[in-house]
Specification:
The protein is mainly beta and 524 residues long. It has a single domain, classed as 6 Propeller (Neuraminidase). A hairpin with a 5-residue loop joins strand 23 and strand 24.
């Protein structure tokens, strides 16, 4: 019996000792310094979300935003509360607020053909504050489709970016190098002005095609042959841009489609058809000019809107006298052979816009510069590189009649921005795609760090005075996701949440509907 008791006591002491040893070992392990992960967590996975900073004395207003593959548009107050939702019938990619509380929004057509990557949507709609559909216009055929951004003109018309298909032979006839052309032919860019008619109609009252303003020095037998450095008003059809992806068989593409690893309507023949990828458009009523962005070319462009349709297809006419040719371009003078890589300013940029009248910096342009100082590998969204993001404000060299100054043999200025925002540690402000920024009435700048779903207001000296991490997620479709108003993106194996872009800060004074429709308040 004594032996049994001694054996039992020994076992108890061994167990206690083992337990204590484990506890000590666990404590020691927790004190070890963790190795910094290679992935920079650009999407903000597993971090706390909601309101982070809400300083005293901020301008009153609201924030409007949308999330992936959702028919909802959200209105957020400064306390981080959702106070209103607009609900449409299809996934919304972007929306613009009207003075009566209605929205003009882009919506993804459920059955558009041919196109399927590069941000197509195919429908533009107008819905009331109370979610009544006023207008539902479809622009989606086998030949063309609206994509990415649009803007509402003062007269109520819509300026929209659209793809138009061109055949392989068309591209060859225009002087594009064969190795730059997918078998299906490229998708070229155009801008259309739509006059809404009735509940679903729309008349194209103005249009501009990049096809009419191409130059190339590859094939001297073609009508558009010339030296790009002598014609910065034209686009070199063989600008470097994004190379075609490696060729694959249709059987391989079918496998990718079955696994949800390819995009809608993507085939072995049309991969890489989105060669210029315009992603933002804005209008300046005083100048009657349009600015748009091409992240594939790392450049922004300005054209004249005062032209007729015929003049827009030519090199003469309009207020500036240059027809539909570029009045100005900035970001990458390599595209017109007037500078090397050291002169490049933009890297995959988004959301180009003029600063509006009455705001500090009025007349300047702002842009979200996604990934300086170089290229990234989009197969992993650049998560393991040392790129960062920046907001640029720059002053275009404009003079009378809305023309822009350029010296002979030199690129368009300016040589550098007048204001730049980067994080104090540089690397923590980072979105390799999507995103945007705009100037506020108080001189601060409102920023959307798109991939992370982070909204922040910064002062001119770079101090963050308001910060919010969006907790609302969209709906995943296999591995495909629409992360903002603009993009279809192929993710890697992990199911990553995606948070969407801030559209604008809304001034309180325009928001009578908010106070007269208390039953529409939603907190979340």
């Amino acid at each position: 019996m004594k032996k049994a008791l001694l054996l039992l006591s020994l076992l108890v002491w061994i167990s206690i000792g083992s337990f204590c040893q484990v506890k000590v070992q666990n404590k020691d392990t927790s004190n070890k310094k963790a190795t910094a992960p290679k992935d920079r967590n650009m999407f903000g996975l597993y971090i706390p979300r909601g309101l982070k900073i809400n300083s005293e004395g901020l301008a009153n207003g609201y924030i409007m935003f949308v999330v992936p593959n959702s028919a909802l548009v959200y209105l957020l107050n400064r306390r981080g509360e959702v106070v209103h939702q607009w609900k449409g019938n299809y996934a919304v990619l972007g929306a613009y607020l009207q003075d009566d509380g209605s929205l003009v929004q882009s919506a993804e057509d459920p059955d558009y053909p041919v196109f399927g990557f590069g941000g197509p949507y195919g429908r533009i709609q107008k819905i009331t504050w109370n979610n009544k559909m006023l207008w539902d216009f479809e622009y989606a055929t086998e030949e063309h489709i609206t994509h990415h951004d649009f803007t509402v003109l003062p007269n109520g018309n819509i300026l929209a970016i659209a793809y138009e298909t061109k055949s392989y032979d068309d591209a060859i006839a225009k002087g594009r190098k064969p190795e730059k052309i997918p078998k299906s032919g490229p998708w070229l860019e155009k801008i259309i002005e739509i006059e809404p008619q009735g509940k679903s109609g729309g008349k194209i009252v103005w249009e501009w095609h990049v096809w009419d303003h191409l130059i190339q020095d590859h094939d001297a037998k073609k009508a558009n042959y010339g030296k790009p450095q002598n014609h910065p008003e034209l686009l070199d059809f063989n600008s470097k841009g994004i190379p075609l992806p490696p060729a694959i068989t249709q059987d391989s593409m079918d496998i990718l489609q079955a696994k949800g690893m390819a995009e809608r309507n993507e085939t072995a023949d049309n991969r890489g058809a989105d060669i210029f990828h315009f992603n933002a458009i804005k209008y300046n009523a005083d100048l009657d000019q349009i600015v748009f962005s091409s992240p594939n070319l790392n450049e922004i462009f300005i054209i004249d809107h005062s032209t007729t349709i015929k003049e827009a297809a030519s090199h003469k006419g309009g207020r500036a006298g240059k027809g539909g040719d570029f009045l100005y371009r900035w970001g990458n003078p390599q595209n017109y052979q007037r500078g090397d890589s050291t002169k490049r300013q933009l890297f995959g940029q988004h959301d180009i816009r003029w600063i509006e009248k009455g705001k500090p910096g009025a007349g300047n342009l702002t842009v979200f510069n996604n990934h300086p100082p170089g290229e990234i590998d989009f197969s992993n969204m650049g998560n393991d590189v040392h790129n960062y993001s920046a907001i640029y404000e720059f002053t275009p060299p404009v003079y009378k009649k809305g023309n822009y100054i350029i010296d002979k043999g030199k690129p368009y200025g300016p040589e550098k921005p007048v204001w730049v925002y980067v994080a104090k540690d540089t690397l923590s402000f980072w979105s390799s795609f999507i995103s945007g920024a705009h100037r506020m009435n108080n001189g601060n700048t409102f920023i959307n760090e798109g991939a992370r779903g982070r909204f922040l207001e910064v002062t001119p000296d770079g101090k963050i005075v308001w910060e919010y991490l969006n907790p609302i997620t969209g709906i995943f479709v296999n591995r495909m996701v629409i992360p903002i108003l603009q993009y279809h993106l192929l993710m890697q194996d992990s199911a990553l949440p995606s948070y969407l872009l801030i559209i604008r800060v809304l001034p309180t004074k325009n928001w009578n509907p908010l106070f007269h429709n208390q039953n529409h308040f939603f907190c979340q």
